[in-house]
């Protein structure tokens, strides 16, 4: 039985690493300076850094990355959330939980939207995940990538 538990943990870590790497590549292609924390998900408890940090046009985006095969409640340990908050305060950035659902766009939830549970940990409900913004919507709202309207204006101005 121990072998099965170890197998599940390893598969989960690989899936998490894959999602983090996918996010880094996506943001890099969009022109961000971006990096994945080298010990993301490791046993380093004193380190206070997130999974992914992305910077563009002076804005710092701080991400805790989650990956799921389908929309379901996601639980986060209080220490995980506090580390994310502290890094965000030190960097002057904005913190988000970003979720990759299989076969779907990245979903983004602001840290303030987490529901605190009686045990001190946090929860993201399935409903909140499903009604959350996509990553592209967030980046357009922050004016870090052009909207369709911006593209049309630029094309019209350039005589396109």
Q: Major beta sheet, specifics?
A: 6 strands, mixed
Helix segment tally: 5
Query: Class in CATH?
Result: Alpha Beta
What would you say the CATH architecture is? Answer: 3-Layer(aba) Sandwich
Overall pLDDT = 86
Number of strands: 9
**CATH topology description:** Trna Endonuclease, Chain: A, domain 1
**Percent in helix:** 40-55%
- Amino-to-carboxy terminus distance: 64 Å
How many structural domains? 1
- Sheet-strand content, in percent, reads 25-35%
Spell the H/E element sequence.
HEEEEHEEEEHEHH
Envelope shape: globular
Widest sheet: strand order? 1-2-3-5-6-9
Give the C-alpha Rg.
17 Å
Describe the structure.
This protein is an alpha+beta fold and 160 residues long. Helix content is 41%, strand content 26%. It has a single domain (2-157), classed as 3-Layer(aba) Sandwich (Trna Endonuclease, Chain: A, domain 1). The protein has 5 helices and 9 strands; from the N terminus they run H-E-E-E-E-H-E-E-E-E-H-E-H-H. The chain has a 6-stranded mixed β-sheet with strand order 1-2-3-5-6-9. Strand 2 and strand 3 (59-68) form a beta hairpin. The protein is globular. Residues 5-12 have low confidence and may be disordered.
Provide a quick synopsis of the model.
By secondary structure, this protein is α+β, with helices and mostly antiparallel strands.
